[in-house]
Structure formats: structure tokens, C-alpha cells
Amino acid sequence: MNKDPFYLGGVEFHSRLILGTGKYPSGEIMLKSIEASGCQMVTAALRRVDLDNPQDDILSRIDKNKIVVLPNTSGARNSKEAIKIAEISMASGLSEWVKLEITPDPRFLLPDGEETLIAAKYLAKNGFKVMPYINADPILAKKLEDIGCVSVMPLGAPIGTNGGLQTLSMIKIIIKQSFVPVIIDAGIGKPSDAAFAMELGASAVMINTAVATAKDPVGMSTAFKLAIDAGRKGYLSGLPSEKDEAEASSPLDWIKDL
Amino acid sequence: MSFSDYLKQFDFLKFVPLIENSTAADVEKIVEKRSIDIYDFAVLLSNSAERFLPALAAKARSYTIRRFGKTMSFYAPLYLSNECDNLCVYCGYHNARRIERVTLSLEQVRSEVQKIKEIGFDSILLLTGESPKKADVNYIKDCVKIAKEYFTYVALEVYPMSSENYQTLSEAGASGLTVYQETYDKEVYKKMHLKGAKSDYQYRLDTPERAFIGGLRKVGIGALLGLSDWRYEALHLALHIDYLRKKYWRQEVSLSFPRINPVTSSFKIPNPVTDKEMIHLISVMRIYLDDVPFFISTRERADFRDKLVELAVTHISAGSKTTPGGYAIKTEAQGQFDVSDKRELKEMISIIRTKGYDPVIKDWDVNFMGVFGDYNG
Question: What is each CA distance from B177 to A257, B126, B157, B173, B204, in whole angstroms?
């Protein structure tokens, strides 16, 4: 067993990859991709789940003993909609986990920080394990942590763009300042992006488009698994850092004589 | 999570060989790095790092100027009371010493405050010993209110109290608190603090947090240099600052470097810190904490302070009187420590200017209040 687990909402995870469940060419390929990736958490849009007929659903084919299903509020445009969706999910016994996504703009699907904070505050107080999807805003991340979210999920680039870690400077601050796991969500396009995120010290990465829309999703999910392991190992093993020139400075000449 | 829990995440056995056995080659690799982690920091504390002092100091200086510019902020300490129930073996105020004990009346406080304002300061630090009977929270609150009439920035260096009391003081207008752990070494702490509330190590350790919870915006910490091995004090200070800045991210932590003056102290210093070690400590602290304000008091010699100004210090006092009533009313009371650098503000400002630094007198606004409201949801 790997000796480097991470703890999220009181649960021990050994895989640092979370996969989405949308955009796959078929349910079969999705299941195979999940299995190949070794991931222990997948997210699914609640709007896609038929809570009245759960046995017909894609979720019914996932082994819940091995994999935590993280319902998400994708499609919610404000805190009220998101809270409602999450409450229905909990009431129907689906999950106390919720990936909070509030995207008022249907085009770029950028998260609304203000509404996310309102919904997160309410849901955390009411027993949910809240994982908010946010812009890479270090202040918002701290506020969400303070009110009891179990992780923060800053975006690396706009969702679906495969842009990589374009919010790098802010992600670094979030990781440095956070007590809860930081999971990079959205924008990760290539295994090397995921490795880079792990090298920075991210706790995990969340990937959907890059795997689901690959020519070979199963091959790609394996590649991500390897990249995440490699990046994490690199982080733990002490990466060399960029060099800095250190020149003696004349106002400090006296130091030589100490 | 408390600071003690935070410390438990680190395996201290990993730090010891880094501090004790790092080689010059180990240090050299880290000197070149653009950013360092806490393990790199431990390597830079090692004896092997001493030979790299010019490079470390140059780096510390450039980081300081990058973050703060060539500026120097000034503040003045005002001792309100030298009454103290504690018995800290190194302190000039301790309970067993037969010295004249004074707690300034509010009228006297006003005279002192007015005098300090006349000298030209806008940032004042109010200090007491630890005698809640002689100088209780209401007395300190009244002093804060008086000081606030004259100064935009009022900070406290008073005995540790509850967060409710800090809130009272914050609402009265105090913005900052200084509280030194003195030493992070529990054994040494016990030997140094024989009597009084201060003998409680843990309560003191959690004081910065209570101050932040009470709404104070800035908290300064430090270790009294000379009590225990400075390298381990430095490591604990760095971890303490990391923790406080992560948890109380709205507020500011600063660092002071109080050193027991070996010349004037009758106390036998267990682990004296030389000038060279002091430079080593301050340089390495700056490299790890590139954005933390560093304070230096008039305990240090004038010539040494002038050098530290160009290294990494951002805040200094000047013309300090460490006796209650030392500025205007002149009592017979004794100071807490002897002031080495006796130069007044005006002279210090001109020295700073000669070095190409801009003196900062006012750096606060009277309308800034404590951090309350939406705190922690």
C-alpha cells in the first residue's frame, strides 16, 4: 500500500486523482478509464442523475466500496440553486459530499466566488463535506477554509480549455497558505500539467475533459495516474529550485571582518 | 489546529542532523536557491553556513529592499509600570529585586505621551510588567485611549491575557501586541521563569493566537537571545510564524531579535549570542521570511544597529527610556534593561537619511479598527 495517503473530509485516500464522469464516448469506456486510473473518487453532475431511478444511472455501475462518488452542482447559477441541488442529493441518500460549482455564465463556466461562499457557508454548517470549485483566488480560498470546507479546488485554466496551470502564481500562494487539501480543478490538459501541479505541492488533481475526450481515454487515464505519481514523488523527494544570484553587497563589507 | 498540533506534524529528529551536521557543500546548494523550505532553512542555520555569511547577508539585504524599499519605521516604547509578580531570572524587573516600583497615573501617562509626541513619533508601544493587580486591563485600556488621542498606531507589550481582554484593548484603539516566548526550549523556560503567571509555558505560547482572536492586527514575536541555543529558537520562531500566518491570514506577524546585553547584565547568560551569530540569524530569517517586518530595539549598540539597518531590519526604536516616566516626569524607578544606543529620534533620522533610507514615522490610520465581524464565519 502506498505510504503517502491524503486525508479529505476525514477519509483516507491513496489515489490523488479525481475523475469526472461526463463527455465519455460510452459508459463502458468511462468505467474502464476509472479503473485504469486507480482513482478513488469520481464526480458526477447531479442534474444528470435520475434520483428516482438510481439503478438506471451510470452511478449504479460504480463500485461504491472502492470509489467515493462526489456529486457536483454543475449547472447551478447561484447559491440558492446549488443549495437546493445539494440538499436533494443528501435527502435521497446519495451523498454528504458535494463539489460546489456555481457558474452563472454558461459560456466560460467561471465560478462565482461570492455565491460560492454563501452556499458553502450554509452547506458546511448543515453537515455537508463541501469541496468548492473556485477561481484561483487565495483570499477566497482562505475564507472557504475558515468556514469549514474540506478542500478548495482552484482552477488552473478555464474549464475545458486544457490550458494547464495558467493561474500558477495564485495556485502557489493557495498551496502555501492552506491547511485543507488543495485540489487543482479545471484546465489540466496533459499528464505533464498534472505532474507539475503535484510537484508544486497540490494534494490532488481533478480531471475530466483531458481523459474523456482523448482518442484513447483508458490510455490517457493511465498516463495521468503515472504523471500524478511521478509529480508527487518529485515533490516529496525535494526538487531543485531555480537559482538566485547572491552577490556580495558593498554596504555589508564589514561582515567579512566579523 | 493549535500551534502545538502544528509542530507535531514535523519530525524534529529530521531537523537535528541538518542543523548539526550540514556540510559547506550542503549549504552552498541552498544559498543559490530562489526560495527555500523549512528544511533548507535548518541547513542555513548550521555552523557550516557561517563561511557563506557575506552571500547570505547580501541576499537578506536584497530581499529586504525588494519587499520594503529603503525605508525605516520608527517607534517609541513607553513603560507604564514596572510592577511585576513574575520571577524571570534574567530580568531587571523581576519580583525579588528591590527596586522602586512605579505604575504611572493616567495624568502621568498623558504627560509622557505628550512628550513622546513632541519628540516626533507617531507609533507608540505601551509596556508593563506582569502585575494585573497594579496594572489591570482597565488601566491599560485607559492608557491606550490616552495614547490614541495622540498617536495613530498604538501597540502593547503587556502580560498575556485572554482574547476577551485583547478585544477590549483592541476596541479601545490598540492595533498591535508584542509577546516574546523568551525561549521555546521547555526545560530552559522552566529554569528561567520561577514564579508567577509567566511560569506557564503553554499559556504564553498561545498568546499570539489569543491576541489575533481578540482582533489585534499585528503581533510581534521573538525569543530572548542568550537563553537557549539560538539555532533551535530560530527554527521554532520560523515554524511559529508559518503557523500564525496560515491561520490568522488577515493579520500581520513581525519578528524581534531581543538579545541579553552581556555587558550590562549581571545574569550569567547560558548561551551568549555573538554579533556574528546575530548577523547569521537575522540574515537567514530574512531569507526564509522575506516579507516579515523585523524589529530591533535600543538594547543593541549604536554601531551595530547602524549595520543592521542596512541588513534586514525594518523597524527601530530611538531615544528609548525603559523606566516608567522616563521621558517627561522622571521618576527614580529603574529600567528593565540598559539602553545601549542612546541617540534620540532626530539624530537617528539624519543617520538613516545619510544611508539613503527614508524614515517612516506615520504608517497607520486612526480609522483602522480591529479585525472583527465576519471572523471565522
Answer: 37, 9, 6, 12, 13
